[in-house]
Specification:
By secondary structure, the chain is an all-beta fold. A two-stranded antiparallel ribbon has the order 1-2. Strands 3-4 form a two-stranded antiparallel sheet. The protein is globular and about 35 Å long. The chain is built from no helices and 4 strands. Helices cover about 0% and strands about 30% of the residues. The protein has one domain (about 5-70).
Length: about 70
């Protein structure tokens, strides 16, 4: 499940809007709605661990966490 960013605007009352964007996926549970382009040779892979990706996970604020690469 992907988390959706929210925006809160205060103009007399508070309104919370859920906004979905392809970039809102943190890849902690799955690859959300990212799909491989069948016309290219690259393939998205969900990975975890150091040495092949980020050294620090921005979602968990630790060295653990998931990311995708191709």
């Amino acid at each position: 499940q992907c988390t959706l960013p929210t925006t809160t605007t205060t103009i007399g009352t508070t309104t919370t809007l859920g906004l979905y964007t392809p970039l809102s996926c943190n890849f902690e549970n799955d690859i959300c709605q990212w799909r491989n382009d069948l016309t290219t040779s690259g393939t998205w892979s969900r990975r975890q661990g150091q040495g092949n990706g980020p050294q620090y996970d921005h979602t968990l604020q630790t060295e653990d966490g998931w990311f995708i690469d191709t």
